[in-house]
């Protein structure tokens, strides 16, 4: 894979992805983690603009690009922004871009909009190279680099043969069809016709089929949704309720009571969302902070007070006990 400068590993986290998207100049959207595929969960997240799926990579899936659910070749995919992944560690950002650059209803911001127009006629490999050479995309991605020597467990496909490899792909509707966009595939995979109402259900079915290919013990999956900014959404809904309240006649007591309850609920949701966004921002600041000097000073003080060696001995004993228990459980399960 091409380097085009170093690209750091970033954590699979909705707060990270939301601030990454904002950093690229996109407005009006956020990312939410999905814990269940049931209808009620999906209903709460509407409108869903695209899905980002993380899974353990097992090599090429064998999916043929540009093939419908019936197995018949489809027509041109020139209307789809699809880029081959040519950069290590960039699959999360590339999956996000696969959604952002294929939606016509988003405020991309000037720079990303110019990038989309400039690369519109490029083939997939050249689009991938253009991403790798984008100062905006690379700098925002790398702004989430940890400034300490500890790295998270998410590894880019093909990065190492000795570790589990994880990969991000995107699902979204484009011109009446559901597409799977995977930068390690040769092209977009058409999963069949869909509507605005059923595309999420069809995408969930495709995701479940992928998950079923793994053993029952495999739990390393993550699913996130790109949604409309919940703060903006709740504010818009509150304005609608306020307008309805102003238009009510004085004797519409019951209707006014119901609308007041709706507004109070929206105000509560808005406050929770603002608190969550503040928490995400704080967590992102901590992710970027270098704690190594503080840890060094702490260990130094413990050593000076002759308290470090006993702690090391205790830690070794606990590690040995855990390893013994793990080996025992493994032997019992065989």
UniProtKB/TrEMBL annotation:
GO cellular component labels: cytoplasm
Glycosyltransferase among keywords: no
Site (Transition state stabilizer): 85
Site (Important for enzyme activity): 182
Record-linked InterPro entries: Papain-like_cys_pep_sf, Peptidase_C12_UCH, Peptidase_C12_UCH_sf, Ubiquitinyl_hydrolase_UCH37, UCH_C
Signal sequence segment: none
Protein name in the entry: Ubiquitin carboxyl-terminal hydrolase
Cross-referenced PROSITE patterns: UCH_DOMAIN, ULD
Enzyme Commission identifier(s): 3.4.19.12
Keyword Protease among record annotations: yes
Residues of the UCH catalytic domain: 6-228
Reaction equations catalysed: Thiol-dependent hydrolysis of ester, thioester, amide, peptide and isopeptide bonds formed by the C-terminal Gly of ubiquitin (a 76-residue protein attached to proteins as an intracellular targeting signal)
CDD domains given in the database record: Peptidase_C12_UCH37_BAP1
Active-site residues from the entry: 91 (nucleophile), 167 (proton donor)
Family the entry assigns: Belongs to the peptidase C12 family.
């Amino acid at each position: 894979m091409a380097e085009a400068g170093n690209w750091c590993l970033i954590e699979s986290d909705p707060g990270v992805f939301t601030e990454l998207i904002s950093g690229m100049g996109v407005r009006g959207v956020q990312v939410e983690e999905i814990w269940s595929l049931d209808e009620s969960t999906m209903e709460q997240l509407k409108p869903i603009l695209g899905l980002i799926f993380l899974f353990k990579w097992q090599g090429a899936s064998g999916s043929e690009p540009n093939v419908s659910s019936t197995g018949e070749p489809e027509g041109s995919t020139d209307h789809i922004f699809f880029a081959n992944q040519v950069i290590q560690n960039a699959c999360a950002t590339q999956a996000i871009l696969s959604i952002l650059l294929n939606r016509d209803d988003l405020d991309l911001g000037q720079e990303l909009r110019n990038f989309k127009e400039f690369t519109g006629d490029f083939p997939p490999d050249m689009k991938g190279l253009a991403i790798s050479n984008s100062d905006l995309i690379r700098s925002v991605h790398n702004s989430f680099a940890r400034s300490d020597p500890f790295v998270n467990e998410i590894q880019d496909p093909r990065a190492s043969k000795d570790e589990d490899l994880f990969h991000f792909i995107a699902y979204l509707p484009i011109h009446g069809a559901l597409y799977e966009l995977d930068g390690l595939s040769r092209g977009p995979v058409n999963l069949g016709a869909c509507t605005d109402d059923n595309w999420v259900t069809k995408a969930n079915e495709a995701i479940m089929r992928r998950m079923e290919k793994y053993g029952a013990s495999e739990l390393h999956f993550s699913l996130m949704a790109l949604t409309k900014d919940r703060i903006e959404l709740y504010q818009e809904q509150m304005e609608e309720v306020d307008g309805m309240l102003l238009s009510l006649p004085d004797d519409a007591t019951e209707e006014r009571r119901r609308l007041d309850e709706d507004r109070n609920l929206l105000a509560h949701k808005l406050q929770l969302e603002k608190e969550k966004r503040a928490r995400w921002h704080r967590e992102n600041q901590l992710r970027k902070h270098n704690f190594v000097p503080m840890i060094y000073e702490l260990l130094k003080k413990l050593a000076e007070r002759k308290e470090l060696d006993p702690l090391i001995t205790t830690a070794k004993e606990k590690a040995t006990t855990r390893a013994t228990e793990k080996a025992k459980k493994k032997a019992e399960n065989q």
